[in-house]
């Protein structure tokens, strides 16, 4: 296959990969993992409102995320170095006349993923053949899991792009490898596991942690803004227990990612992988082991697995497809893989509670822009994000304490539970519908 044909096919794949990611692209940030998307998007939105400050990123949540009883009235957000937000903000500055901030955030992840697919193709072609490289890029682009999780407002797709850029530049430019690898680790420190193929250049590999270490030293100046994270390692003691194997290798890799029928070519590919791919796969396995609870708790944690999974499936398909009958078997396996995986992932696109969107729109129209609100939603910040206001996603203290200590002025709820009914009786109702209620935390003058 000549290079002109390769690049034509790759271009066709990129176009199709872009189109499939437009499915429900205008969804509000209220679909699957909306809390994490809302937190990420809120940092960019605060830059739009108040100016860029990359060293002290802020979001909307004032509650204690540190696990140490530290409320966060400044809204500091030190979950990761905000490189994704900087790219998001830059694109939004150019496109704000045409698209919403949330849509630009999704497009940012899509663009990163299209670049990733090109890098994956180039990297795999270097180590195998153009056929394997094109097939790996195809699987990467069209796995239903990866379609959904690469059109979300999360830093993970950008981290994957930077990892692949570091791996691709390794033989030709150590400085570029270091730059891309360091940025990947800054965006998500878990990237270091997927850079394991660089380990043969030991000092380069170790030095990738230096910028991240500096960032960690800096962020400890703002302890209230650092989310508790040690629990991600093995907080529920699930590592190597039967449930760990079931969830990661059954539910996630087997069902959600490979749709059951992709397991066969995946295993074949493991036996055909060279030392480079095996070191990459070993890094992925080590990541699942070290961050045992995180990978069980959050299915978006498997995003960085997809490049090596795609490579192994492609290797297995090409190796097995030596006759027409075997090719037919592999086509059947791939079709079922995509179909069953789509059946598993399609529910993630659903907005499960439109009430938080409509209540948020009402708050945004009715309340002052600088109002501090309490928007309880079981601690999920997706509702708070929809209000376009800062405040609290839960009632971690009595409502009077949130008002007196932290300046909370309004309460908004989409749930008429006992807690909401008690607040409605005591304070001033500004707007009430069957779906939501907005309350000013001022006691009315009663006759």
Automatic annotation (TrEMBL):
One cellular component term from this protein's GO annotations in UniProt: plasma membrane
Keyword Hydrolase: no
Membrane-topology annotation of the record: Multi-pass membrane protein
GO molecular function: pentosyltransferase activity
First-listed, main subcellular location of the protein, grouped into a coarse class: membrane
A GO BP annotation: lipopolysaccharide biosynthetic process
Top-rank lineage group of the source organism: Bacteria
InterPro entries assigned to the protein according to its UniProt record, in alphabetical order: LipidA_mod_glycosyltrf_83 (IPR050297), RgtA/B/C-like (IPR038731)
Localization (cell): Cell membrane
Residues of the Glycosyltransferase RgtA/B/C/D-like domain: 101-206
Keywords: Cell membrane, Glycosyltransferase, Membrane, Transferase, Transmembrane, Transmembrane helix
Spans through the membrane: 103-124, 131-147, 176-196, 202-218, 253-271, 277-296, 303-322, 328-345
Name by which UniProt lists this protein: PMT family glycosyltransferase, 4-amino-4-deoxy-L-arabinose transferase
Source species: Candidatus Amesbacteria bacterium GW2011_GWA2_47_11b
């Amino acid at each position: 296959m000549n290079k002109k044909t390769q690049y034509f096919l790759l271009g066709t794949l990129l176009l199709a990969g872009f189109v499939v990611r437009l499915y429900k692209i205008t969804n509000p940030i209220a679909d699957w993992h909306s809390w994490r998307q809302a937190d990420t998007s809120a940092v960019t939105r605060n830059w739009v409102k108040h100016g860029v400050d990359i060293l002290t990123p802020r979001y909307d949540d004032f509650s204690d995320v540190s696990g140490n009883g530290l409320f966060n009235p400044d809204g500091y957000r030190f979950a990761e170095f905000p490189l994704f937000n900087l790219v998001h903000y830059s694109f939004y500055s150019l496109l704000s006349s045409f698209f919403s901030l949330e849509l630009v955030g999704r497009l940012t992840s899509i663009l990163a993923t299209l670049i990733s697919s090109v890098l994956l193709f180039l990297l795999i072609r270097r180590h195998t053949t153009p056929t394997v490289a094109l097939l790996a890029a195809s699987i990467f682009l069209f796995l239903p899991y990866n379609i959904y999780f690469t059109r979300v407002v999360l830093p993970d797709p950008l981290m994957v792009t930077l990892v692949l850029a570091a791996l691709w530049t390794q033989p030709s430019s150590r400085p570029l490898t270091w730059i891309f690898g360091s940025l990947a680790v800054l965006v998500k420190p878990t990237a270091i596991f997927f850079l394991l193929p660089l380990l043969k250049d030991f000092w380069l590999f170790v030095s990738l942690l230096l910028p991240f270490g500096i960032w960690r030293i800096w962020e400890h100046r703002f302890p209230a803004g650092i989310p508790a994270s040690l629990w991600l390692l093995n907080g529920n003691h699930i590592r190597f227990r039967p449930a760990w194997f079931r969830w990661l290798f059954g539910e996630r890799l087997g069902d959600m990612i490979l749709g059951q029928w992709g397991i066969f070519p995946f295993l074949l590919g493991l036996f055909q992988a060279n030392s480079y791919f095996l070191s990459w796969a070993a890094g992925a396995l080590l990541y699942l082991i070290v961050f045992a609870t995180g990978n069980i708790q959050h299915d978006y944690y498997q995003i960085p697995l997809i490049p090596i999974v795609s490579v192994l499936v492609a290797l297995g398909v090409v190796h097995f497809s030596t006759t027409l009958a075997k090719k037919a078997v592999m086509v059947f396996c791939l079709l079922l893989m995509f179909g069953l995986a789509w059946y598993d992932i399609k529910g993630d696109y659903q907005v499960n509670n439109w009430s938080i969107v409509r209540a948020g729109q009402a708050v945004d129209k009715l309340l002052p822009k600088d109002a501090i609100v309490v928007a309880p939603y079981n601690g999920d910040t997706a509702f708070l994000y929809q209000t376009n206001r800062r405040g609290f996603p839960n009632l971690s203290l009595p409502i009077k304490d949130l008002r007196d200590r932290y300046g909370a002025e309004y309460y908004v709820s989409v749930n008429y539970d006992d807690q909401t009914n008690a607040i409605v009786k005591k304070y001033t109702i500004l707007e009430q519908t069957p779906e939501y209620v907005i309350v000013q935390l001022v006691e009315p003058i009663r006759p």
